[in-house]
Amino acid sequence: MKALKEFWQKQNTLERKLFWSTLAVVIIVAILSAIFTIYENMNSAASIGSVGCALVCIIVAVFAYKSSFYSQCYLVMCLVLGGCILPLLFLFCGGFTGGLPLYFVASLMLIAYTEKSAYKVIAFVVTMVLQLTAVGLSWVHPEWVLSELGRDDSYLDMVVSLLFSGFAVFSISTLTVSAYAHERAKNAKLLARMDYLSSRDSLTEVYNRRHMSSFLANVVWHRRNDFYLLMLNIDNLKRVNETFGHAFGDQVIMSVAHLLDSSADLSSNECVGRYDGDTFVYVIEASSEVEAYAKADKIRKSVIQTRWEDFPHIQVTVSGGFAFCGNRSFRDYRQMLAKVEELMRVAKSQGKNQLRSMVEN
């Protein structure tokens, strides 16, 4: 069981899962049919045909496992079973007095799970034609139908065929739905991850510049009286990288990003993003400029107090520009960004470790 479970987990596509589950169900049904026909001492052709179905599936399974041609192998299996073995069994095992027509329906259902639509239609038409040919021959040449069953045997064969074909249809459909649901959940998770990565900075996992620009244009600019914009730059990061290495420099960047992100109010429309290598943008939602500025300056002070295990004596500072988004001098969000960047550069040129606002300038 452990080996089977490991094998199943390796089938990482919907196509493979459908192939192996269908093959397993068909083999089980074929073996059960063979056992039933032998037990009831029915026509030997029925037993041979049932065993033949199982052997065909096993051969297809081996070839598919070695070649990985799952779609082709599945199609061959459907054609051999539905278009060859079952029509012959229909003639050899009583025609309409037996339960083979139920297997006809089940075999046509199997073709529906073929991946490529063009081949699916061809296989369906070919199988249907061959099965109808067998039915037509039984009508035109009733003497060709061997071992017509009596009333009791016919009833028993119909019941057993209904049980086996019903089990096959139910099992394959259930496994298909389960595999599809699993695949859909996996794809949804992958898409969610891709969507997350497309809007996030790979190092810090805060929002990237593209997302921030979209957020400023589509959210902030339409409600700009509610927002304040802070742009922070890490002071002397180049010197930190040269002295202590880029790995520590990345650690500093991530720490500042984490401070900003943890300061953002998730219940509001606040947003933090990495604007450039060591520059961050923080959209603050506040009821007054005093409140927003106090929050921004608290972040600046928190950066000063941050300590690192490998270099406990290192003190890092940030400089920033701060502006009210609702200022009427801004024609668009780009001008607003340009202004806070200008204020940030003023803060760095005037001693660093400070915030500069439009009021102060």
Description:
By secondary structure, this protein is an alpha+beta fold. It has twelve helices and five strands. The protein has helices at 2-10, 14-39, 44-67, 70-92, 100-111, 117-140, 151-199, 209-220, 237-244, 246-263, 289-305, 333-349; strands spanning 227-234, 271-276, 279-285, 318-324, 355-357. Strands 2-3-1-4-5 form a five-stranded mixed β-sheet, with helices on both faces. β4 (318-324), α12 (333-349) and β5 (355-357) form a beta-alpha-beta unit. α4 (70-92) packs antiparallel against α5 (100-111). It is rod-shaped and about 105 Å long.
Low-confidence stretches: none
Within the largest sheet, what's the order of strands?
Answer: 2-3-1-4-5
Give a short account of the largest sheet.
Answer: 5 strands, mixed
Structural class: alpha+beta
The SSE string, one letter per element, is: HHHHHHHHEHHEEHEHE
Helix percentage: 55-70%
Distance between the termini: 74 Å
Would you tell me the overall average pLDDT? 87
Oligomer: single chain
Total DSSP E strands: 5
